[in-house]
Amino acid sequence: MEICYTLNVLLNEYPRGLLAKKFSEYTTKDARLARVAESTREAFNKSGLTAHNWEHSYRDALNAIVIGEAEGADMNIVLPAALMHDIGFLYGGTGKTHGAVGADKLPEFLAQYDIKYPEKDLLHIAACIRTHKGSMQNESPETLEAKVVCDADFLEKFGIFGVYSGIRTHTEFNNDIECIIDRKTKGMEKLYLETKTGKEIAEQGRQFVVDFFQALDKANEPYRT
């Protein structure tokens, strides 16, 4: 199987550490965003979640920088939404419901850390969180910022990271190998990227995920009854 990386030239242009530096520049300029990052890190580190954790949220934020800047999105909305897109899991949300739960619980989460946003921005961030599963949940992100947040999250479902995060996610949900194989071989065709940049970065990694889990399916055949 030929290795096809999730990240194409658009992301390969960023040498090691550059995206982290860009994120640091955003948080240095915006003290409120820095508090969002620190609060989200603290909350997820306490949660013990395997896949939907700070590591994942941070990668999504870096993905969002690449996509959001290229698309001309409002990063004052995109970055806090990307960082907090999975907070629904902290309030009992499931794979299907955590977007809605996170959007509804956003004011409570921010209040817990004494973080305040103007009402208009709060509603916009909540909308990004609510629809971040996009085509996976038959949702349609409406604003450019919501589309960027959706695509930033979807990048982890393509290519090598698609395999890595897929296994971690299904382990977190306690799904067996048959469920993982079924969802990852059949589900990839349903994933729709919302932005031109997102499509350019992720699309080449779609078949890699399908090929890997088809190979896993074949390897698992002798163990079936």
Descriptive overview:
It is built from twelve helices and no strands. The protein has one domain (9-223): Orthogonal Bundle (Hypothetical protein af1432), CATH 1.10.3210. It has helices spanning 9-12, 18-29, 31-47, 54-71, 75-84, 98-112, 119-130, 144-154, 159-172, 177-186, 196-202, 206-220. This is HD/PDEase domain-containing protein. Residues 49-167 form the HD/PDEase domain.
Give the C-level CATH assignment: Mainly Alpha
> Which structural class best describes the helix and strand composition?
mainly alpha
Dominant shape: globular
How many helices? The count is 12
- How many β-strands, per DSSP? 0
**Based on the structure, what is the oligomeric state of the protein chains?**
single chain
Beta-strand percent range:
under 5%
Q: Could you tell me the radius of gyration in angstroms? A: 17 Å
CATH level 3 topology: Hypothetical protein af1432
What about the largest sheet? none
Shape-level CATH architecture = Orthogonal Bundle
Task: Give start-end ranges of low-pLDDT stretches.
Answer: 1-9
Name given to the CATH homologous superfamily? Hypothetical protein af1432
Distance between the termini: 27 Å
What share of the residues lie within helices? Answer: 55-70%
Protein name: HD/PDEase domain-containing protein
InterPro entries: HD/PDEase_dom, HD_domain
Organism: Candidatus Harrisonbacteria bacterium CG10_big_fil_rev_8_21_14_0_10_49_15
Pfam families: HD (PF01966)
